[in-house]
Structure formats: C-alpha cells, structure tokens
Design a protein that fits this description.
By secondary structure, this protein is α/β, with parallel strands linked by helices. Helices cover 40% and strands 14% of the residues. A 6-stranded parallel beta sheet has the order 2-1-3-4-6-5, with helices on both faces. Strand 1, helix 4 and strand 2 form a beta-alpha-beta unit. Helix 1 crosses helix 9 and helix 3 runs parallel beside helix 9. The protein is globular and about 45 Å long. The C terminus is likely disordered.
Length: 222
C-alpha cells in the first residue's frame, strides 16, 4: 500500500509541474514529509539505480562511466551492479550510440551517456538516421525504444566550444526522437520512477535526455 501511495504522490506531483513556483511548492511538501534534499546529479544517480534495479536488461555505459563519470552521476553503480552492466567505452561517440541501438534492438534497455553534449555530433548520423528511423523503416516490426541517451549540456561555463554548447534543439526536428530537458531533481526521479524516462516504451525510438547543472554546487540544485 505504501508503494502505491508513493506512486500516486509522484504522479500528482508531476501533474502540477507547469511552472517554477508549482515545482517549488511540490518539492517543499515532499521535503517536509521526507526531510531530505538532493541535488540534480544525485537524482540522476538514483534514477539510474532505479532503472538497473528494476530491469535486469538495463545497461549503463559511456566514457569514464565505471568510475563515476566527470559529474559523478554514475558513482557506485559499477560496484553495485557489476562491470558487465555498467562499463566504460572507447572514446567514440558514433560507436557508443551505435552499440546502444543494437543493444536496444535486441530487447534491452541501453542507457548511453555522452560525456558532454558537445561530443554528440559524431553520433548525429546514428541518432537521426538509424535510431530515429529504426521502427519506421522496418514497418513496425522492430524498434530500439529501449535506448536512452543522456547528455549533460551547458554544464561548464568556462569550457569553451567543446564543453558548453546546447545542441539539443537539433534533435527536436527529427521525427522518432523524444527530447527531454530535465532541470529539477524531482523531474528526474519522477520520470525515472514512474514515467519510464530511463527505460523507454517501444513506440519511442529514442529519448535524448539533456541534463544541465549536474555539479553538486551548481545553480541547478533543487
């Protein structure tokens, strides 16, 4: 009963997230009931744990993922779930996404991390011409709806043109892709826990989840 009540609480919370003020009020009520504040990168880490714990077909991989990643969003996941489910990849964004597409097409949940959204351009062809069109070109016989690509954008203000771009708008114009920009911790947890953001439904070719301000002391804390 407690689990059902918790799900209903999150769903009611998500239904009210139409403005910043409503988000703050919902968060305040949850903090009062649970007494715990978390920032965005912690919420991402917890969301990934939810995905890995609830579905044995879930995998998390990308550059430097196994030691926690540059933003520490995958800290402790390799130790908890093993190197076969949370692992590093070569520095090849096209190959990372391509592997994720194949993994998802086989019925798995591939959670791909692109270290910085700026690095996603080499994988543009894989995302737009392969992942986005996989279900369409097969006449609805196959899909890679289990693919999620998480890419932190705008997270390093001093990083120049390779660490501070916000390229998510490019993908908004490609049919078959869902682009989600999550700013608040409550959005990440609600999405991962009850709305399938990190384990996508079959009719979605891909979700490109951009997360900004993931550092512990950034302005994106909630």
């Amino acid at each position: 009963m407690a689990t059902i009540a918790r799900k209903l609480e999150w769903r009611r919370a998500m239904s009210t997230l139409s403005s910043s003020s409503s988000i703050q009020s919902v968060y305040s009520s949850i903090v009062q009931s649970e007494g715990k504040r978390i920032n965005l990168f912690t919420a991402i880490n917890q969301a990934l744990r939810i995905a890995l714990e609830t579905d044995p077909r879930s995998y998390v991989f990308g550059e430097d993922v196994s030691f926690g990643g540059v933003f520490r969003c995958t800290t402790g996941l390799t130790e908890r779930f093993g190197k076969h489910r949370v692992f590093n990849t070569p520095l090849c964004e096209q190959g990372i996404v391509g592997f994720g597409i194949g993994l998802a097409a086989m019925g798995n949940r591939a959670i791909v991390e692109i270290q910085f959204a700026d690095y996603i351009y080499p994988a543009f062809d894989q995302i737009v011409n392969e992942a986005a069109k996989y279900r369409y070109r097969s006449g609805n016989q196959f899909n890679c709806g289990g693919l999620t690509i998480r890419a932190p954008y705008g997270a390093v203000g001093h990083g120049g043109h390779y660490h501070s771009q916000s390229p998510e708008a490019f993908f908004c114009h490609a049919p078959g892709i869902k682009v989600i920009s999550l700013y608040y911790a409550i959005q990440v947890l609600s999405c991962a826990g009850y709305q399938g953001c990190y384990t996508t439904e079959p009719n979605a070719s891909k979700r490109f989840t951009s997360c900004i301000n993931t550092r512990p002391k950034s302005s994106g804390l909630f």
